[in-house]
């Protein structure tokens, strides 16, 4: 075997505090008093890092585009302080529509910093632009801009083409970013700019700055560029006349130049990052004492005191020992206030290198292909692999990979177009464009002003370990129970297992069972007792944030993905439509029998319950019927149960008082065919509901039905819980949702004869594995799969992370 060079990631000495896992992140660290004013800033950064370590998430998807009826396969990667988050257990993933309503959401179990998952898209899935959102509970304590989001487009396979091109993309805007933050009057300033169209995508521009020199400007990469300007003092700002590539001309105003303060110039030379402070007035004694602090991932990497009166205004930061990532360089005044700030990207040779050691590619129908991946010589590598049809599956070049996400976009605010491009090589043009990204985007994981004043984030969500069941107990007098216990019999219908647990009740009447791990749904039969063993105890379980149906607020506008080549899209949709037909045949398990004449009409299973409950106008109608006597719903109430189940019905806000909308109006609400309201239905236990009928607009069964109707029926005698939900004498039932059960990717083995192999094979994803086994001796991994009926070229995408936090991606077409 030939030698394979390995590049190990250079790490700062991350210190993950034990208090993180103990759940007491709010404890104040004890530190010695600072030696001088600048040490106070260093201590504030150290305290923030110890108490609030960064957790990040990335999702590797099998494809960039999907059609209704397909399955979204993904692998979640979780890191803490740049290393695999081996203590993480819970990953929350949501699929949001263009209005930020949750279409699907699941909790996935994280093991060894990875979480396999999938979302099944029904064939009735409305086509359009969606977002995948992934996060841990710990990440919710901080700015939502740093949760993982990814835009995907879902198509209707029955249509031959995609949506019409957006004809409103002619408008554009230009933003200007003085280096360091402010324009300084009377001093040479470097100003970066970014031009985007009204969809948020970059456009190329040219123009002129109306200064004494009529400075010309021109974008050099993805709408970004820089120019030099020396503004004069005064209230008037310079104007920029900018022309787009389509000939449209607009005038923009630059920021007003400041006569006080200071700016910061940075020159990234790779091994050394040079900086220079630029005071507005060299004679201003308030600017005599300055300090430069550089941090990466909340770790101090450089500090220098500057004395302007003695001419010490510049220096350099050694970067040859730093890992790849964003370096934040901040200039502070003697009062501890930040004066200027600049980001710089460190490019180290520390990528996780992967390649194909051996390959045996079979392009004939249903023949087996084999790839042997060569991986770094590390203790452990965690990789996921997708193989798709290179001709029929479109590729979104704007989709970020694990490298560009964890090293770049997860640490800055603002949209970065095609972030993977900046990691393709280390050519001067690429590095210059990457520096433009640093100048036109902001780093705001924390505020220097706030942490210097010991103003830290409020911890609303502790670091989770497993699933918790907690709540409060009260007595017949309504007061909290002091002492006592809550006995629980926990049954798992998915595997018929059961266990017994007992939770002590503390002095506040609260109980908590933490670190539970179970799939699907747990049936918790509980019985509380006080210190005197009295059974007159009321129990109220806490509602987890993930069980609440709230509309998600995405910090960035939803961007329509770039248009796909029409020929590629037609091939993709036609194949997806044929694949859906095959999947229906497999799922229906169709068996052809000898022809039999049947005269009696077969009653549908749902009609038995519906006929027992509905009458009059409620017995018919156009809509949806949900028979809960045959289900074990885990929803909080009927509104959570219905959310995302009915196309067009919008249910948003707090589940206790949700907002309902259908075709611009409120649907009518009925309880046992009597008109009711939201407050009545929201308090109704889902376990008491037998049937829900949702009528499409218009509904003629009563008043207020122009926008449809929701009819709810409570259980009658005879509608007992299912056989796998037996009651236990003296105990009450509480259902708790656990980890989602991840479907197994279908990969046929054509070396074995099976009845299902008689069906056509129209798979677009030929191979998907979220956890490919790696041979620790040879540091190789084998990928084997059988071709479908038509693919001639394959796209192999490998993404992963090592135990040292080195990330990498390999992509090649065969």
UniProtKB/TrEMBL annotation:
Q: What is this protein called?
A: MG2 domain-containing protein
* Macroglobulin domain location: 56-134
Q: Give the organism, scientific name.
A: Chitinophaga eiseniae
One Pfam family recorded for the sequence: MG2
Stored InterPro entries: MG2 (IPR002890)
Residue intervals passing through the bilayer: 12-31
Q: Name one GO molecular function term.
A: endopeptidase inhibitor activity
Q: Which UniProt keywords apply?
A: Membrane, Transmembrane, Transmembrane helix
Q: Which domain of life is it from?
A: Bacteria
> Entry's Gene3D superfamilies?
2.60.40.1930
From the broadest rank down, the organism's phylogenetic lineage runs:
Bacteria, Pseudomonadati, Bacteroidota, Chitinophagia, Chitinophagales
